[in-house]
Design brief:
423 residues, alpha+beta, five-stranded antiparallel β-sheet, five-stranded mixed β-sheet, 10 helices, rod-shaped
């Protein structure tokens, strides 16, 4: 198990333990507080019932056993509690549940003993008769010749329900926490994968740029050395070598320009935006690239007056078109490169079609990668940097658009760009 997995598992375990500890501490203190508050309230209720019983003694004698039973049943039903009246020997004289005759002696009950000694008290314990927890509150009942205890018993079902609810809430909280941790793990894994992909892309980019720079630099240095070693004395040879140096220098300049342009586009630096006449931009591209058109190739564009202006950086739109059209011209020896432009209710649609060498399916999936070339020898011969279509893709993404390519080997290619009017 690698360090990252250990870290994530450790984090998850620590988070669950921390949650459980917090929940336990919170509920333990809270439950204790609720119990004490409940006991205090129930004890006050028992003392009030005792006072009511004593106030009802209007004859100067303590009520009879039957009257005690009626009192217990009446107020037990009224307040939905259990009332038991016990004498000093532990015998039950009256019970709100009507079970006085069959109940065991209560002298050994802790709360009864304390009440007989004059102390009002409460205690929570499980009833063996009813099989649940009760809060027993016992208060002294001393009057004239009678000495006994009035005891109330309130089921702690509500607190038990709260305890059960707390348990369910804790399980739910743990489940949610685990889901969050799993989500974090998935996000972290995706983040690591993305970082690895970026790092791999960076290494490949540096390697490719280094290679692309090294090739013309080596060529330039070689011809310079040849010229210095005497080739300058031969005007024809010197002229040819200087032409090659000029071509390689231009290639270096184009590579640097394209690299800087790609970096600028990737950083979303596109503050200049204005409504552009798309037909006019295409006409400028056609005029610029006409000198590159080969003898047996035509560059075709028919303006469409229905095309709506597109708000963008004019230079970006022009760069996109130059790269796509130039790519088509380089791939085409016979036939035509055709530019179509139209507007839909939502998008500006640009289609550049050529009758060139075409591509295989696996090649169309990679042509937007930096420095990827369908035909490396042909591309280098024609002076391509390998960044043109990558620049196109990033410009399209800059405007939240899409680009699709259809191609068949030996039959040509079609690039379709859709740029939303509102991005």
């Amino acid at each position: 198990m690698d360090l990252k997995k250990k870290f994530l598992i450790g984090y998850a375990v620590a988070a669950v333990i921390a949650l459980l500890a917090f929940e336990y501490a919170f509920w333990s203190n809270g439950f204790t507080y609720l119990e004490k508050q409940s006991e205090a309230g129930y004890l006050t209720q028992a003392e009030l019932l005792r006072d009511i019983l004593l106030e009802e003694d209007t004859r100067g004698v303590f009520p009879s056993k039957e009257e005690l039973k009626d009192f217990a049943e009446h107020y037990g039903e009224k307040y939905n509690i259990r009332i038991t009246i016990i004498d000093e020997k532990g015998q039950v004289l009256g019970d709100s549940k009507g079970a006085g005759q069959v109940m065991s002696n209560h002298l050994d009950r802790e709360e009864v003993q304390k009440a007989l000694s004059g102390e009002s008290n409460s205690i929570i314990r499980r009833s063996s008769t009813f099989g649940m927890d009760y809060c027993y509150c016992a208060v002294p009942l001393h009057v004239k010749s009678f000495r006994g205890v009035l005891r109330t018993a309130i089921p702690m079902e509500e607190l038990k329900n709260m305890d059960d609810e707390f348990f369910r809430s804790t399980i739910l909280a743990i489940a949610i926490l685990l889901l969050l941790v799993l989500s974090l793990i998935m996000y972290f894994r995706k983040y690591l994968s993305a970082m690895k992909a970026v790092e791999k892309q960076r290494r490949e980019f540096v390697s490719n740029v280094t290679h692309e720079l090294k090739t013309p630099m080596t060529s330039i240095r070689g011809f310079v050395e040849t010229l210095k070693n005497g080739a300058l004395e031969d005007p024809e040879c010197a002229g040819r070598f200087l032409d090659i140096i000029d071509i390689e220098t231009e290639r270096l300049g184009n590579l640097i320009d394209d690299t800087l342009l790609l970096s600028e586009i990737e950083n979303k630096k596109d503050v200049r935006q204005e409504p552009c006449d798309v037909n006019k931009v295409i006409e400028e591209v056609v005029e610029l690239l006409t000198p590159k058109v080969k003898p047996h190739v035509r560059l075709i564009f028919t303006p469409d007056s229905s095309v709506r202006p597109y708000t963008c950086n004019r230079d970006r739109l022009k760069q996109l078109l130059i790269n796509l059209v130039d790519n088509g011209l380089k791939a085409t020896e016979f036939g035509a490169v055709t530019i179509n432009c139209r507007s839909t209710p939502k998008d500006l649609v640009l289609e550049i079609t050529d009758t060139g060498i075409g591509m295989e399916a696996e090649q169309t999936e990679r042509i937007f990668e930096r420095f990827y070339r369908v035909d490396k020898g042909r591309s280098r011969e024609q002076g391509g940097t390998g960044l043109g279509l990558s620049i196109v893709k990033h410009i399209v993404e800059l405007y939240k658009g899409t680009i699709q390519v259809k191609s068949r080997l030996g039959e040509g290619s079609e690039f379709r760009v859709e740029l939303p009017y509102y991005f």
